[in-house]
Amino acid sequence: MTLPATAPEGTELMPIHQPQQRSAAASSEPLGVQQAEAALVEHYPRLVRLAYVVLPPSLGRHRRVLAAHGAVQRALPGARTSPDRVRVPAQSRRSPEAARAARAEGPASAPYAWMRLRVLRTALAYERRPRWWPGRLPAPAALRPTLPVVWGLRLFPRAGGVDELALDRALSEVPGAVRAAFALQLLDGLPETAVRALLAEAGVDDPAGAVRRAARLGRPDPVAAQVLLRSGEFDPCTVQTRPSDLLRRRHRVRAAALAAALCVVAGTLAVAAGKEVRDEAPGAGVTVPALDPAALLRTAAEQWADTSRIDFTAWPVRGDRRGDGELLGRALRAWSEPSGNVQVSTTPGTVGVPPAQPPRLLFAGEVDGAAVVLFHDGGVRIVRYAEPLAGGGGAALDFARTDDADVTTGAAVVVSRTGEKARFLLAPWISETTTRDLLAPDTPGRPLEVGPDGITAPVERPAAGGGCDAWPVLQLRSSERIVENHAFLVTDLGDLAPAHLTYTPKPGRGAPARQPREATGPEALLAWARTACSLRALSGSGVRAVNNWAFAEQRLPEGEASAEWLCTRADTWRGPGRVLVQFLQPAASPTAPAAVVADRNDTALCSRFGQHILAGTHWKAASGRWYVLAAGSRAVNRIEATGQVRGTAGGPTLAVRAPRDASVELTARLREGGTLAAVR
Q1: 290 close to 335: Cβ distance less than 8 angstroms
Q2: 3-state class (DSSP) for residue 287
Q3: Which of 272, 290, 384, 477 lies deepest, with the highest CB count within 10 Å?
Q4: Are residues 45 and 96 located together in one domain of the fold?
């Protein structure tokens, strides 16, 4: 049974900081408005990025971009503040830490430091806004919408990879003061003392606590975290644009004016007009070029071998109907405005809006009695359109996210599913294709026939229900022409893009942390043989990749063999991940399923930003006696059990006698300090 894993309140000792002393003197140092303007212009991208990171993620990416630019532009004092000069607090008014930090930065950076403080205060104010804002009531003056204002466009930074999304997720779970401390240290390179002083000046209640929590966000590799924070994911000065519902909004304005006029005659007509506007088709805002088959983007056949971007943008157009303008036109019209006989499906986190610009054509041909068209939409989505060749049935339109795909996650797309089998369209860089069964780890892969257009022969699909007797996967090998030439596994989890399977081996003694690797070796295949059936829980959830991490090995009590602890992490295309902690006790069969002892959604556990884990379970020995077993990752050096059973063990594993139904709470200490609660 799964142990309750509620952690007691931590007893970690915290450093005691003397309260900051401020002089009562009202001295100040003059700073020219022109100096402030020069600092803003020179450091504008730097200040906007700082504001973007500090602003609450709940605003959404579009509003955060505009709010970040607004916070920086409003930081420049206007004429009402002072006609000629503005005032900067003198060093004598600051705490000793702030004064030392200012001296370290040098007098030349004083205008920038002053602008940074104003930006920081504005960004932090968004998190302190009243509960009723934003709404229809007036907002506080500092937060009222001001320039820049964008009509008709949605702005958002370039989408990052899995690591950037994980960092964005981690930042969204902490207060703005912690995000500010994190950004000031990694973006501006300020020491902790200077960050504490700056946060105090910005009005943060607990600067020291914010700095401590920010330090934990950057572990274990602050340099890598700094690189991620400086990536395009957090750069609101380099944005992508998408149109909003331009024509629908125009129709709404016209309909509202007409309704207002008709209200004089009959109020019921106004209601009907409003309903007509609300029911406007979502495709009304699509421009004609995006729906023109002649405007579709097409990649040359050999471009994939001569580009550094190996993803869906490098796929050449294939299929014997790629020149069929009527078929392509029907597919684009169905995408723009699907009729009632078009069945639409989207994976979680994928929008089904029409294309904003001409998409890229990947395939158009006949597969298994249907005409199939595959589009790639601006690096974000794969769209599949299929209509039956005979029988008069309805068409199907499927959407799936594929942003930041790579050699492995952009290696295949499902073009057809019939019954219990599926066909895949393979990337042009796939040089070898085989199939294998994860539940038969010792059986070599079988060659899979691939047609001249890159479409595979039918492949068995994992059973969605009933017994789990087999788990088919594709084993693909990339071409030497892209200097990859490595084999990897992908499996069909019900989405258009199959999920990439990897494996992270057990930690070595004294060795650095292991990294995920391809799940094609004997050790990886044995681990997947016992955990493959748990992939059923991930079906249809938009999974990009799944990694099996063997985070601990434990010698079982009473002289029995060893058991393994695995953390199976599924990363989705939209960012959040799901974790299953599985316990692999000795078994007679190499495919005996592991026991799932913890299940957590929307977590950074077992990822680059969640490298510490502790889990536990009840276990029955051959003698009939029950134990509580617990194991932690490589940084755990002490585990303690409290509650109805008490016990302590030095190191990453614990075993203690306990009744079968005993309620136990598990906590661990890490080598570098801090505590860790067991995952449920």
Answers
A1: no
A2: coil
A3: 384
A4: yes
